[in-house]
Design a protein that fits this description.
homodimer, alpha+beta, 6 helices, 7 strands, DNA-binding
Chain lengths: 157, 157
DNA sequence: AATGTAACTATTTTTTCCATAGTTACAAAA
DNA sequence: TTTTGTAACTATGGAAAAAATAGTTACATT
């Protein structure tokens, strides 16, 4: 069984699958509006109208993306009043599990795209009270993950 | 100074900036092709032709996205031969720093979108030798980050 | 001289986006 | 009880972007 290190060039096309889990994930959330809807969801924004106000998305686009996310089981549509057409979109377990990804995206933006004024908002990790600087670690050894430390293996059946 | 917990509803519109670092990051990488190009880059694929073959993107689209990424300083375009038109696109430090985000996206796809056959490929963390299961941790206390443990604060000047 | 390769550009067709207007179902105010 | 308001959309037409295809450039190889 061979492995290939990431970031170094692979000279032969060694069985890497054309469609991996990055592609699979992007089929669900690979859209700017979807990312922004998820960001809003993590900030507690759940309703169509509030999303419209905060995102400035066109009503048809927002409706389409919400429907996709509900179909993909990332959001759940529930009624919040006895009113007929009053719905909330809540993160499912699958949706909540996107939080680490969004947090890393935000951290990258803070580091590389914030202007002279610094990041427009800070996250605070309540259990320890510090400003959150998130890192990605290997759950087996606890060490931070760097691209050059990772190799890959195709899972063929 | 007030803080607001994430995921719980925010009843008042308490000064959260409309454009945060998630939006800023998405202005650079908020496109499906860009994500896929970055994935390829992390697997060592650097050349236009190989990207074309692996991604199946139209030539104009691929050229456009590569240009954007070079302009944004995520990729660097360098000549790899004395040939006039032979270029490679290499990840800059800014680009390499996107690896944690991509890894979390892949992990999410593995967990929620892999079929019965399981993930099409596994990543291996070379320093410890285990299959990589990445987690996002607070760098201050080392604990895994969960959405419900994080609050936020707007940075106004 | 002809064919091949890498990295594109140009053009046309198709798709998607987006702004605007309109709809539904109710609630509250005039 | 007509009007105004609110929430959550749907429908429509023009604009922008994407995708497919063909063509270009600069060289190297057969």
């Amino acid at each position: 069984m061979t492995t290939k290190t990431i970031v170094t060039p692979s000279t032969d096309d060694d069985a890497r699958p054309a469609r991996d889990s990055v592609a699979a994930a992007l089929e669900v959330i690979g859209d700017r509006w979807v990312f922004l809807i998820l960001r809003e969801a993590f900030f507690g924004v759940k309703r169509y109208d509030e999303l419209r106000k905060n995102l400035g998305a066109s009503p048809n686009i927002l409706a389409d993306r919400l429907k996709r996310l509900v179909d993909a089981n990332v959001l759940e549509k529930t009624r919040y009043s006895d009113h007929k057409n009053r719905f909330e979109y809540q993160l499912t377990e699958k949706g909540l599990d996107l939080y680490p990804m969004i947090v890393m995206l935000l951290a990258w933006g803070d580091k590389w795209e914030a202007g002279a004024a610094g990041p427009p908002l800070s996250l605070i990790h309540e259990p320890c009270g510090h400003i959150l600087t998130p890192t990605v670690n290997c759950s087996a050894c606890g060490e931070p993950v760097r691209a050059q430390d990772v190799s890959w293996r195709a899972n063929t059946e």
